[in-house]
Amino acid sequence: MIKFIIQGGKPIGGEIAVGGAKNEAIKLIPAALLSNSPVIVRNMPDIEDCKRCLELFQDLGGTVEHTGEEVILTAPAEIKTTLEPKFANKLRASIMFVAPMLARSGKAVFPHPGGCVIGAGIRPIDLFTDGFASMGVDIDFSDGLYHLSTKKLKACNYFFTTVSVTGTESMMMAATMAEGTTTLKNCAMEPEIQALAEHLNNCGARITGAGTPTITIEGVTGLAGAPVSVIPDRLETGTFAILAAAARAKLKITRCHPGHLDSLLTIFKKMGIIFETGPDWIQMISYPEKIPAYNLKTHEYPGFPTDLQSPFTVLMTQAHGTSLIHETIYERRLLFTDMLTQMGANITMCDPHRVVIQGPTPLHGRSLTSPDLRAGISMIIAGAIASGKTEIDNIYQIERGYEQIDTRLRAIGVDIVRSE
Length: 420
Ligand code: EPZ
What we know:
There is one protein chain. The chain is 30% helix and 25% strand. It is an alpha+beta fold. A 4-stranded mixed beta sheet has the order 21-22-1-23. The protein has a 4-stranded mixed beta sheet with strand order 2-14-16-15, covered by helices on one side. The protein has a 4-stranded mixed beta sheet with strand order 4-5-3-13. The chain is globular. The site of ligand EPZ has 26 residues, from helix 1, helix 5, helix 6 and helix 12. Ligand EPZ binds at residues 22-23, 26, 92-93, 118-119, 123-128, 162, 164-167, 188, 306-307, 329-330, 373-374, 401.
């Protein structure tokens, strides 16, 4: 079993560059199935989730070329319309391939997507199936597989009863080549959605309103390919900024987009954390003697992202006073706080969505298992500020979303090694 081993308490500083956004890159890959000529992707992060999506793209008949800085994706003339369980069971985002399949061939067969332990048990996909049904898709579930079919996707008016990032992106993709004009309401507004819409429009789609709650898509007959550069990963940026705060480090974060982190940076200002920002960098400067406790509530973008809740929870174990963390999006995302308690944190779980943290408490290293991507990186942050040694196994869950994370953290002073 490969592990990360961290010796805590080492001084952190210097400069770290941010990679391309995982949650845009793994949508650009299925979206390339919509284009009838090559899509050239730059700044794609070299992470497990992207590798899985590229494997799935090839399994469906697509071709993938790596040329140094670029990944060139070419869709097949005939697309395979079955998502193999070996891929779909590993990757929740495999569901993003269904909309392009329906748009290109009118057919899709797939299992319930697996791969992500957060959320209630098996994460629901009702927003996807209801959305496709609104576009005239017949849906049957038999022998453990969803069977979807339609002669031609039809435009629809669709209201998301729950704000969903991938639900919004999926319906946006499906509507690009549907007959007529589709209106999507109560959409998610993440920057990755705006970036995907911009790319699809560069390919010839007619999407307006991405980044607002209402998106309108006028169907076109086909999409060409276009070059696209993946936007900086705001979650990696926020994770590094929170690591710096937890370690009281003077750290410069480069190749990022500070404007995508208003929620975190505004809270930092309220807490008295001093930093400067430029067009593509954040310089963490100094911290109050006593980092104050803060009551956090996660919220869809532009609110505080659920994907930064776990790192922020680690920071609150070092804050002075009582903090309430209210995770509004997922039922199980706070379960990892058990491990922080084992490291010495004082955390009480009130219900599946809320914990109360009494700080500050010194943390001591432990052997831990990473349950999900963001909890995993949070354990690295905890290990980096704890006394003694922390071992983290199941690091696939971390390498899914953070490219060469041990190498990059070592370069800013974290004593972390990858060992068999
Ligand atoms: C995206 O997941 C991100 N993943 C998640 O990041 C992120 O945490 C999440 O959005 C929220 O911001 C990708 O973009 C690949 P949702 P997504 O659909 O779209 C419920 C990470 O760590 N729901 O917005 O799958 C669902 O249960 C990952 O990078 C339904 O009820 O999340 C949840 O409570 C983790 N029915 C809520 O919506 C559905 O059909 C929001 O989930 C779909 C979702």
